[in-house]
Amino acid sequence: MFTVLAATGDETLAKRLYESLEDGGYHCFPAQDGEKVYFLLDNFHIDLLVCEAALPGKDGCTITRELRAAQFSLPILLLAGENSLEQKRACFLAGADDCMPKPVEMEELLLRVSALLRRAGAASRHKLQIGELAVDYDTLTVSTPDRNMKLPKREFELLFKLLSSPGQTFTRRQLLDELWGLDTGVDERTVDVHIKRLRARFKYRQEFQLVTVRGIGYRAKLTR
User: Fold this and answer.
1) SS3 142
2) How far apart, in Å, are the Cα atoms of 157 and each of 25, 68, 137, 154, 211?
3) Distance CA 156, CA 161 (A)
4) How far lies 159's CA from each of 105, 162, 175, 212, in Å?
5) Does pTM surpass 0.85?
6) Are 58 and 34 in contact (CB under 8 A)?
7) Of 109, 8, 98, which Cα lies nearest the Cα of 59?
8) Model pLDDT for residues 9-29, shown as the tens digit of each residue
9) How far is CA 180 from CA 8, 93, 118, 128, 157, in A?
């Protein structure tokens, strides 16, 4: 599942964006201002940014310019206040990949989001091939030549996170915040429980190990 960050100070538009993106099969993070945009980009994997040009605090064009200057390459779709050449020019010169006027037609927005993700090659980042093991984020499946296993969502996301950065250690808190969210009531033992389940599922596979880093968290070790 792709993750879209939708930034707007308009509560009605925010609700429509969130519902449309979630119904369209995307995971959506909402943001009300530029500060929240930067926080989410720093702490979560975001595949695409939908941002209102007239965002409170720091406008969408400024955010886009700053992200491009910082070498952020994710696709950016800006929502302009009017359908004028001047607005479009400002958005594209700032570094946006696409621009839509308001009011936003949600069906068209979903088509544009899909096209931007396809153009950016984001789909390839949602598939891993490790030996004979194929890991597909969009279907939550782990496949071998003779078996196709669909995992529960949290288990799959945890496995994909670790396998995407083999050798990198993640703390329990990092994993909990990214995969379960910042406002949930679950504690760090939840990560341990899911690691235990993953180890049981894949105990006979030779391609990887989920290694405990004592007192810190976990990392994936590729073994073939």
Assistant:
1) strand
2) 16, 28, 8, 5, 17
3) 8
4) 36, 5, 11, 14
5) no
6) yes
7) 8
8) 999 999 999 999 999 888 899
9) 24, 37, 27, 22, 10
